[in-house]
Amino acid sequence: MTPARSATIKDVAAAAGVGIATVSRVFSGTGSVSAATRERVLAAARELDYRPSALGRGLKLRRSGGIGLIVPDVTDPFCADLVAGVLACARTLGEHVIVDAAHGDPAREAEIVDRLVEQRVDGVIAVPAGEDADWRAAARVCSSVVFADRVLPRLPEIPAVLADDAGGVRSLVEYLVGLGHRRIGFLGAAPPGAPSGAASTGRDGPPGASWGVRERAFRDTLAQLRVPLEEDLIVAARSAGDAAYAAAAGLLQRRADVTAVLAAGHLLGEAAVLVARGLDLRVPADVSIAMVDDVAWAELCDPPLTAVARPARDIGYRACELLLRDRARRGRGGPVLLPTELVVRGSCGPLRTARAPGRGTARHA
Amino acid sequence: MTPARSATIKDVAAAAGVGIATVSRVFSGTGSVSAATRERVLAAARELDYRPSALGRGLKLRRSGGIGLIVPDVTDPFCADLVAGVLACARTLGEHVIVDAAHGDPAREAEIVDRLVEQRVDGVIAVPAGEDADWRAAARVCSSVVFADRVLPRLPEIPAVLADDAGGVRSLVEYLVGLGHRRIGFLGAAPPGAPSGAASTGRDGPPGASWGVRERAFRDTLAQLRVPLEEDLIVAARSAGDAAYAAAAGLLQRRADVTAVLAAGHLLGEAAVLVARGLDLRVPADVSIAMVDDVAWAELCDPPLTAVARPARDIGYRACELLLRDRARRGRGGPVLLPTELVVRGSCGPLRTARAPGRGTARHA
DNA sequence: ATGAAAGCGCTAACAC
DNA sequence: GTGTTAGCGCTTTCAT
Fold first, then answer.
1. Among A48, A180, B157, B189, which is 20 to 30 Å from B130 by CA?
2. How far is CA B77 from CA A148, A309, B83, in A?
3. A330 falls in which pLDDT band (50, 70, 90)?
């Protein structure tokens, strides 16, 4: 009863008493077929439970009808939103999406790119981890590559869609300074491999560069507002859990006089909140906290956290559009910059003179 | 310089002065090739920047080397973890993963399944939304289908990997009852389409059935512990934001005497926390809250939320293994059940006699 | 050990 | 409008 192998276009043609080209026309929508024939073909196809093979079509057309998407980690809320955006756009364009996670490992990323090229995907969207992957080759073999959320300084010709991180940090700093804060701690993400906890050099490291953008925006805005900058208020940590926690704890204990902390990412923000709680600091009475990335828990936190929302979903959506629709317009005028939004909640308050006595001392690792 | 079209096996064969079969042998690892020839082939391939086409191979082999993964929503933390698990396993097996989100819409899911079948994926893993999709056909054309996290009652023959939700809820109820609670509200997820806020019927609705499992476990455990069950403490809500909030608010206002709330999912838990805050109820002094799904914010919450952790990542990993490796062992002895873990934090306290006066009155929509 | 040749399922000229 | 035919890039007998 059930056919051992799924029916092919040839089977359908035979069953409908037509040529295979006609069947192809019916299913690919190309050319013209009389209503009667079309009906017969459709009936035969239904009867045989025929499913056109994307493999055959792909081979002929030299494209698979799918795109590749590489993110650092699908469980990161920002990445997840980005993925959702790509999925939404790809769906409207009838393409499927091969997703993979590079976990910040350039070698792994290079492998993924290779696989994607072998699959002959119609394009690749990546939140790039590094320059090991042969991005140019990928852009050549696949029709194209678009970067999302991050760019690689050495590959300026690859089009990109980014959040306006500088603008986001600027609005946060302006907000904090407007509240009266002067000694603001900056928890920044260090590039992979950098010594954790060390103050950054202020220059862009090879990968990402986005951390550099945020730190520079922090410095620039402070300068612009004529707030003196203290180097040891700027801390760079690998944003992994423990390192981030250590960095935040170090900052808050070393400088008991900081009145506000700006975390340059949600993992760093999480660390800041946990450290403040561990040190028994009241937020915002003893210290104000704000962060980049408006993830779900920001609202659930007590007090709810003020954050800069970055349009992750839109970034994904636009990147996909850029890749598949606006091929022509691509890469002109530098990266596409999407606006961020400052979401004010309760975690930042006006400046108080000093921390309550006894607070801010280590009490908990 | 750059070839207009990427090199094919034929080009490499010509360049290396060998037949295409030899090149194929070199790249597919099949058959035997002399070391010298292999070297020449590899050199030629490198020279031409040759990438074997998965399309050609797939057509011949009648499999694409990829699997499909359908989840309700990639931005849901549980789903994201599940996806990560599938990705991890697929990677070890050298398969790529086509991911898509059905958003709880059976029609959309059916479309996705169709696309996946057209792609001739080697198998499909799904957190199923409904029975519209032709799962049996998919299982036939693709080699197989495995359900994750949910099963479809009408398709018992499809293998599945699930969390032991019943056990999780049971441990939560036992914990709460052990703390002295007797009037425990249950916030359950209603099947899509059911009237929100209405008490459920206690029977499995067509889709998912997982909500049914949790509610039944709630009832059963209470009965087993000889705690009287009050029907109007059981509320079913669509777990979407507003509906969940409304359901939680309804429960807490209608029954000012509930001393604990068990939310059957993280969205419902979020609603419970927000409502408690809105009603100015102290947690756990006025009301204890616990939920199923140990998502990131549970720890960031104040107080941190007690929750049942479900092994989302493992579910994904096992489902993928089952699909690709343990084909033989599949579907024997019913679904694979993975254990949950009760993570006790600060959101549940011992029973107090009554809510503080004035609390629990509506004060905030 | 290696090459020639026959498809895998489909689309796109090109004939009629 | 519809059928015929020639590949798309690869794997795989089957010879050699």
1. A48
2. 21, 18, 10
3. confident
Q: Give 3-state DSSP helix, strand, coil % of chain B, rounded to 5.
A: 40, 15, 45
Please give the residue range of the domain that contains residue B288: 165-305
What amino acid occupies position A324?
A: L
Chain segment B292-339, per-residue pLDDT in tens: 999 999 999 989 999 999 999 999 999 999 999 988 777 777 899 999
Q: What is the CATH number of the domain that holds B133?
A: 3.40.50.2300
State whether A200 and A256 are in the same domain.
Answer: yes
Both B79 and B143 in a single domain? Answer: yes
> Is the per-residue pLDDT at B200 higher than 60?
no
Residues A172 and A272 in one domain: yes
Asked if B302's CB is within 8 angstroms of A49's CB, the reply is no
Domain match, B42 and B103 both = no
* Nucleotide nearest B19, from its CA to each C1': C3
- Residue B360 touches chain A, beta carbons under 8 Å: no
Q: Cα distance from B99 to chain A (closest Cα, Å)?
A: 6
Tell me which residue in B54, B118, B273 faces A120 most closely, judged by beta carbons: B54
pLDDT in tens, B70-79: 999 999 999 9
CA distances from B298 to A271, A302, B129 (A): 14, 12, 26
Which of B49, B114, B302 shows the shortest C-beta gap to A302? B302
- Whether A78 and A169 map to the same domain: the answer is no
Are the Cβ atoms of A302 and B297 closer than 8 angstroms?
no
Shortest CA gap A305–chain B (Å): 11
Same domain, B19 and B128: no
Whether B256 maps to a domain, the answer reads yes
* A354 falls within a domain: no
* Nearest CB neighbour to B84, from listed A66, A101, A120: A101
pLDDT tier at B352, thresholds 50, 70, 90: confident
Q: Model's pTM, two decimal places?
A: 0.93
Binding-face residues of B in 198-227 toward A, CB within 8 A: none
Calpha distance A40→A37 (Å, rounded): 5
Asked whether residue A20 falls in the same domain as residue A111, the answer is no
| Closest-approach nucleotide to residue B58, Cα vs C1' | D10
Q: What is the pLDDT of residues A46-71, one digit of tens each?
A: 999 999 999 999 999 999 999 999 99
Q: Are residues B122 and B210 in the same domain?
A: no
Confidence of residue B242 (pLDDT cuts 50, 70, 90): confident
Tokens 């204990």 — which residue?
A253
Contact A300 B296 (CB under 8 A): no
Q: How many C-beta atoms surround the C-beta of residue A248 within 10 A?
A: 28
Cα–Cα distance for residue pair A277/A304, rounded to 1 Å: 14
Residue B300 Cβ under 7 A from any strand D atom: no
How many structural domains is chain A composed of? 3
